[in-house]
What does this fold into?
Amino acid sequence: MSTEMREQQSHLPMTMSYPLRLRVRHQGYVFSRRDAREFGVADEQLRAWTASGEAVRATQGVYYIPCESLTDAAFDTETGRRKVRATLLAIGKSHFATHQSALLAWGLPFDASRDAHDVHVGRQADRHWSRRRGVRLHRVPPGATIAECYGISAICPAFAIVQVGATIGIEAAVIAADSALHNRLISLCDLKEAVRWLSGTPGCAAVAPLSDLVDARSESPGESRLRLILRAAGVQVTPQAVIRNEAGTFIARVDLLVDDSLVIVQFDGLLKYRGEANREALVHEKRREVALQRLGYRVLRFVWADLSDPQQMLSLLRDLT
It folds into this structure.
């Protein structure tokens, strides 16, 4: 079992035999009905585990162990990964995660409300496929790079990003690409090659301008989406701009600085200010804002809810510029 999977320990059913426990851990906390039967587990016991919540049925004939003791975001990510692992265990080694399921494997952001309930898998060989509920199969042209991440065989990040852009839209692709570029999972050349590689597939026109819209400096999905909204409105900004005083002393690094102005646009995800331990971070942020205001800068702050009303955001921005 990989180091990444070892960090996400879970409680296995008390009635699970030791050999099956080893198999389940080795496979990333997933197992099949065949695994269970190999070590003497009857279908009645499988039904008892699922009824008690000790195991979750991912798709026909495969199960995963639920996560415990994780933050909400980490819980959702690891649960999703286990579902993907279980699905790949069920359908065979010639398949691999694609689209949103591959983004999940690589730890890249995606909108969980958009077509994320199904597991997306691909294959490069043209073989007979028997449909499964909750699984979407995609035929992938030869040449795509497949690698393993968190125990999941997945298409490489750049290709997954372009797939998502072609099926969901350019914004989803930009958000994932910004994160991948920022964390050096991919290069701009990788992204351009993936766009070229998918140029003949349905929806490819949507991702043609992708390399011109991404920016590795963005540090969160909220910043990426905010930057896209401003760009669509013709507002040019510099991400992660460094602000210094007249003496050249560093004052702050801000999310977005409107070009040729003293207007700063900040995105607040709120999570960084939750909890007693982060009170100092909030105090530091307030002091930083006062220092910026003394230099003549005006700061606009937006949260996720604001991004659903771009016109109101732009109206506030126009009032300052």
Confidence is low (pLDDT under 50) at residues 1-7. The CA atoms of residues 227 and 237 lie 7 Å apart.
